[in-house]
Amino acid sequence: MQMTIYRLSFLIIVFTCLVSCTKEDEDPLPSPDIIEEVSVDLDAVPYAQLSDYHFFQGALKDLENHPRVLPYDLISPLFTDYAKKSRFIWMPEGLSAEYSSDGQILDFPVGTVIIKTFYYDHVLPEDERKNLETRLLIHKEDGWIFAEYVWNDDQTEAPLDTQGDFIPVEFIDDNGVTRSIDYRLPSMDGGECLVCHKKDGLPIPIGPKPQNLNKLYDYTNGAMNQLDKWKEIGYLDDSTPIPSAAHTVVNWKNEALDLELRVRSYIDINCGHCHAEGSHCDYRPMRFAFSETGSEENLGICVEPDEYLGAGQTHIVSSGNIGRSMLYYRFSSTDEAVRMPLLGRSIVHDEALEMIVEWIESLDPPCD
Fold first, then answer.
1. CA distance 96 to 108
2. Is 50 helix (H, G, I), strand (E, B) or coil?
3. 121-151, pLDDT tens digit by residue?
4. Measured between alpha carbons, how far is 307 from 314 in angstroms, rounded to an integer?
């Protein structure tokens, strides 16, 4: 009996030593609270894959942002074949954007990265969310560059892709309508990104203007005006006007608001970046920026088109007559030679077209 007790004690001691040694020799398990710092080396970007930047934590497809990667939204977003968008921005520590005017892009510091992921919520046949692409605009020393990342089928990574392509997508939109499209991925090599995102031939952002950001956003710690939030975390200098003073677009979907303001807001974000000085369509007579469409001429009302498309249009906007309005013709067309905007959509934006029709038909007196 005594021998058995000795043997049992010996075995316990050996087992304890083995376990202790094993624990000392093994690498400790990583803490779930460890956050990898964002990596943006301006000499090395664009990286080969989206995960290399460490903008997101956890499963990449969930787009759970790093604490210093700030989500944001636009009051009236640009239409892209009913795709939804998750927008984020990151700036280097200690740097902030500067305000120039409500209707102008903020002056972002070198190192800024604007991050936008395009996705659908109800992709068939599984009826699941699917990320299609993530576009980056990176502000290097000599200006902005584009970086296009296309998500793989299992949604684990998005490699850099400069060629552009089409992705067939069948999805259910927010109105319960099933739609099938060939979603267009822009070509960086072919210059398609530059068509819309340019000023005097150089790449620029489009959306982040005070007029588009002046809204509440539901952050994880509560709702707050985006301009105030950007100031709070140091992403916006203190000289920016208080939100109540900013000249702001409206949500075009809000039917309780003034019809013309809704139309002007929609046209601003979808058309204003091209119909501006130094932009792709600056040779056209209209100027579609929200700050400029208070003028009937800039909205195209009773302005004769500078080209005839042979479909009976007499004016850009013919008061009370959609059949004679070039704006209606272009918005209702899917022909690449006719439609507006030129890129970004392959189908008609039905709800917006209904608003455009209502607005044109409300205008009077008729054009001469």
1. 7
2. helix
3. 999 999 999 999 999 999 999 999 999 999 9
4. 10
Strand partners, 116: 87, 135
Q: pLDDT > 90: what percent of the chain?
A: 67
For residue 170, which of 184, 158, 183, 157 has the smallest C-alpha distance? 183
187: left (phi over 0), alpha (psi -120 to 50) or beta: beta
pTM of the predicted model, to two decimals?
0.86
Distance set, CA 16 to CA 11, 24, 25, 256 (Å): 9, 12, 14, 74
What is residue 21's predicted lDDT score, i.e. its pLDDT?
40
Host H or E run for residue 128? strand 128-140
137/206 Cα distance (integer angstroms): 10
Determine whether 273 is exposed, middle or buried from the number of CB atoms within 10 Å of its CB (0-12, 13-18, 19+): buried
Return the beta strands (E) in 151-292 as ranges: 165-172, 178-185, 198-199, 202-203, 216-219, 222-225
What does residue 38 show for φ and ψ, rounded to 5 degrees? -60, 140
Q: Which residues pair with 86 in a beta bridge?
A: 117
H or E element: which one contains 119? strand 113-123
DSSP label at 317? B
Listed residue (220, 49, 294, 277) closest to 148, CA to CA:
49
Query: 3-state class of 70 per DSSP?
Result: strand
pLDDT band at residue 282 using 50, 70 and 90 as cut-offs: low
Q: How confident is the model at residue 116 (pLDDT cuts 50, 70, 90)?
A: very high
211, two tokens: 């007029």
Tens of pLDDT, residues 186-239: 887 757 676 666 675 678 899 999 999 999 999 999 999 999 999 999 999 988
